[in-house]
Amino acid sequence: MAEEKELRYDPATIEPKWQQRWAADPGMYAAEPHSCGKPKYYVLEMLPYPSGQLHMGHVRNYSIGDALARHMWMRGYNVMHPMGWDAFGLPAENAALKNNTPPREWTLSNIAAMKRQFERLGMGFDWATEVTTCLPDYYKWNQWFFLRMYEKGLAYRKKSKVNWCPECATVLANEQVIDGRCWRHEDTIVEQRDLVQWFLRITAYAQELLDDLDKLDGWPEKVRTMQRNWIGRSEGTEVDFGVENRPEKIRVFTTRVDTIFGATSVQLAPEHALVTALAADDAGLREQVSKLLEEQKKAREAGDIGEIEKHGIPTGKFAINPYSGELVPIWVANYVLSDYGTGAIMSVPGHDARDFEFAKKYAIPVRRVIAPADPNAEEPELPFLSEDGVLVNSGEFNGLSCEQAQKQLQEVAARSAFGEAKVTFRLKDWGVSRQRYWGTPIPMIHCERDGLVPVPDEQLPVLLPEKIEITQQGGSPLSRVPDFVNVTCPRCKGPAKRETDTMDTFVDSSWYFYRYTDAKNANAPFDSATAKYWFPIDQYIGGVEHAILHLIYSRFWTKVMRDLGLITNDEPVRRLFTQGMVIKDGAKMSKSKGNVVSPDDMVARYGADSARMYALFAAPPDRDLDWQEDGVAGVSRFLGRVWRIVTKYAPVARAASQVNSDVPNSGVAQKLLRKLHQTTAKITLDFEGRWHFNTCVAAIMELVNELQGADAQLAAGQVPAAVIRELLQTLVLLIAPFAPYLAAELWEELGGDGAVLRQPWPKSDPGLAKEDEIEIPVQINGKLVSVVRVASGSDSKVIEAAALDEEKVKTRIAGKTVAKIIVVPGRAVNLVVK
Ligand code: ANZ
Ligand code: ZN
Q: For residues 412 and 410, what is the distance between their CA atoms, to the nearest angstrom?
């Protein structure tokens, strides 16, 4: 009985035992002082929202990061591996509404619960640098940054059309609207409202945000492309059209000023100032325009403003083309957006598809002004969309190429002061006002005498009041707390009112990773020298859903902090990894889909190591992972095999140093050592950037198979004890980043010194890893010309490549074509040459 129990792998006893030991040594995962002399490595996973429960997506994300951190510790780096909580946000308020728990209490108890889950999973975080964004010691610095931005003109207020989620009862940033719906409420259509809002001037950095993407070669190309498109740089020209019998000018933005002689109308957005002016004394126009606005609103809400069914209204007025003097009708059109370019366009139906559609509908003339560059080419049908034609019907500019014409037309416009070259961005300033309670109060005061007055630094933080009634009513809950609202104006000492908007929670996550480096600093957001040592982050790991929002805001924040003189790096993150989603039964694992697997359950049934290792084994980390419970059970059985083989031969390994091993390395020993060194080389390479952790686990499985296959020889003493020790110790070290509990237990079992984390990462000896070589004859057209040496077991591709690289073969086939290569693996290769 006792013996049988001994032979069982039991994570339920192993894991709590090590969890306790690790908890007793809080310095274990702490970063060392800069003076330690080791190279630094900052590995970071995106911080979770404290919902109260980790989900499998988290387990996956943190298993990847923790494996990397452990590996880097073993490689001798000074590793920073922190964790924190993105703790502001709406769910806390919703929970308060539902169960009457104050948001702070709800959030902090969730944090405690999730921290226990993290610890149970054995994640190697340095809790001494924990950051909780909803606590005043953190959000004070959000306010401090806001004031610095206000001083630099980077934070400002304006009335604007905003995205309003009726479910959240708050404003959303553009980035938080996905296909016309709220990013938190897939089924809720976002409305448009007019409100005075606070904005951060991210557009001031548009060009730099775009340019620096080129430097981020450690980022997935798809993320860089998404950001490029989001920033949306467009080079063009702004041109003023006059208005017949009126003093106004209509400034249009066009990317194709070379087509301006083909402009047969000018189109205004429904909210254009001239439209407002014309509609002021024209009730009919007013009514029609409000219809267009309604259409735009609907299309925006449905998320397809780009494909809107085109409608327009003629104003009866005429615009004057500044180059030709031609009069063209002015229309109001629903496909012209007020918040892009100048909110007005010149319509060129001959060369633009949308304008063509519009012109056909309303019988507006279509004129050809670009012809194919090749004079013999057939006349293309209109609309003819081309950028490398030549100008026709364009007065003195006829015959110029599109490119030349654009240049010359811009010069004329600049000289005559009716236009200029202009770069336009799609990126908009970041609206950060939220009419919610659970967020950072914006540190501003409204005084009737002095207007907007910033809260002085020494009065920070502006604390969120604790006693508050959360209701579903519109407007900020803070506006109903007189103690909060009523203040003394810092300037005139008269009565004044606080700003009651709070900040978007994406502010919190824009710089939290700097705070980790100096989390207790009460005098500054962080120490600059410390940040300089740790930044940029060497590896950031998170979901691709943050490709735009969080990852563009935090790049912006970094640039602002640099310009404030706090840091010297231009970018926060050197390498970014975006992991795939966790899928179950064909859908993303999520509460709303009802297909959630609880990590606690998995841990209770199979242990943390199995859950973690499965998360890495089931799919390459960048792909979606289809969750199969069988798979977890399979990994658990595999860890059981590791446990059995190691414990079985641990006594031999422990005794190895005393044994005078005079048994020569047998064939079995060599074969096992070869596999060991090959596995070491593979896993090392993956940690260096290839990241196929699924195949790393598979390789460890193969190694264990070979060990088990050699059980009889091991038992018979055919493998020297010192070799057994190397085999088992190295196996344990290789598995340590993936299954840290089991590794700790077996390391102790093997009599290893100190913590696994402090052991040097195993080195692969290329000599030992090398396969036996065999000779393969190379024939050309059936005649033997040479032999090549390849590793035994090499596949056709390897043999082919070796043959083509052989000197004699190279000379013989020079200048000829190799029509075919026939490989008989292990036997011969024949090149058919013509
Ligand atoms: C005339 C023209 C002729 C245009 C032609 C294009 C092709 P991107 O590249 O996205 O910047 N445009 C400008 N402002 C607009 C607005 N507020 N709403 C809708 N459309 C607007 O596109 C710039 C082009 O989109 C501009 O160049 C303008 O149409 C249109 F053969 O001007 B173009
Ligand atoms: Zn005042």
A: 5
